[in-house]
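ARCHIVE CARD
Drawer: 12
Card no.: 0347
Subject: one protein chain, sequence and derived structure
Cross-reference: see card 0346
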Amino acid sequence: MEARRLPAAARLTKLALTAYLGPESLQGVAEADRVRRACGLNLHALFATLDQLVATGAVAAWALCLSIGDLHWELGTGHGRNRRQAQ
């Protein structure tokens, strides 16, 4: 599914996850509460949105480390990162 066809919350979440990545990285980690606030979602809605992004292939996988509250994710194919620009 194309990003523009995703609901607004999913597009914003995908953008937030991408913003937390380092250069050339497809895997990220951040405090789940920080990502939740950046997206304007409660934790339940964030997790449902992440599942939706996995279902569409925008996110390959995600996990929550309960002991410290960190969210780990990997962007999926078709995410738009690391594309070469035409010269």
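Annotation on reverse: Strands lie at 27-31, 59-65, 70-75. Confidence is low (pLDDT under 50) at residues 81-87.
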